[in-house]
Amino acid sequence: MRDLPAGTVLGFRNIGSFLLVEHEYPTTVTKERHWHSWLHLAVVQQGSYSRVSRSRRYDFRPGSLAFLESNESHTDIYAGGSKCLHVVIPCELERRLSHDFRTGIALGEVLHQVAAPAAITLQQEFLLPSGSSPLIVETLMFDLISRHLRIICERSRLRPEWMRWLMEYLNDTFEQDWTLEKIAADLGVHPVHLCRTFSENQNCTLGAYIRELRLTRGWQLLALSSETVANVAMQCGFADQSHFTRLFKSRFGITPGAFRQAAAVRTLDQRTQR
């Protein structure tokens, strides 16, 4: 089946050779098996989005970025209340990227550390385009894919082998409750050995790494979505809003509420100037 629209289109914009479309899904929507004739990037602004491809289901949370190569047959499921920014990437660029990186761009979810700043930049260029937007979006795509592929390559060389699994596990579950003993047991290593090896490879403790992932996701969701600060805190795995606020201010020098207010004022000023 060819691709058919779903949800409600809130807005769309051509930026150079890219098309950016913002969709809202008031109720749960399932798009039965179909395909796109272009490389597709989905940015989950709020809610959740799932994809079934090659007999496997992929679930994407708020803040996730996910690539899908052209002509890949799949099914989409959008939860009620979800909102996504979809980016249509021209076939010529996909062929160029595949040639340069010598691999297809069926990357699935982009790693969180790379996804957060990219999602915010795409959102800003969609809302407030300028004459430099085509260059910004094109260079962002090259940077996004090359950094993602490089991290995957680096992780594949990490020793011991269980470190690669651990990094993927943390990227997928950092907002969940977890214990060092359970993770170590699942990996089959001693907790002390796990902590020491992780610190040697990442130059930070496991706990600090988890906290940074959670705070980065909070920063991202405050910029992308209209969720309350309390909901953002919950989605990022913090015990409550006050805990999130305290750590956010310590990390970024501003409270979540003040950050969102400043971002709104800045957006208004930029719109007036343009």
Q: Would you give an account of this structure?
A:
The structure is a single chain. With 274 residues, the chain is an alpha+beta fold. The protein folds into two domains: 8-156, Sandwich (Jelly Rolls), CATH 2.60.120.810; 162-267, Homeodomain-like (Arc Repressor Mutant, subunit A). It is 51% helix and 22% strand. It has ten helices and ten strands. The protein has helices at residues 91-101, 112-127, 133-156, 162-173, 180-187, 191-202, 206-224, 229-235, 241-252, 256-273; strands at 8-15, 18-25, 29-34, 39-46, 49-53, 56-60, 65-68, 74-78, 82-89, 108-109. A six-stranded antiparallel beta sheet has the order 1-2-9-4-7-10. Strands 3-8-5-6 form a four-stranded antiparallel beta sheet, with no helix packed on it. Helix 2 runs parallel beside helix 7 (206-224) and helix 8 packs across helix 9 (241-252). The model has no long low-confidence stretch (mean pLDDT 85).
Tally of helical runs: 10
How would you state the average pLDDT, rounded? Answer: 85
Q: How far apart, in Å, are the first and last alpha carbons?
A: 41 Å
Helix content: 40-55%
Strand order in the largest sheet: 1-2-9-4-7-10
Structural category? alpha+beta
Order of helices and strands: EEEEEEEEEHEHHHHHHHHH
Integer-rounded radius of gyration: 19 Å
Silhouette: globular
CATH architecture call of the largest domain = Sandwich
Counted beta strands: 10
Strand content: 15-25%
**Class of the largest domain, according to the CATH hierarchy?**
Mainly Beta
Question: Largest beta sheet, briefly?
Answer: 6 strands, antiparallel
- Summed up, the domain count is 2
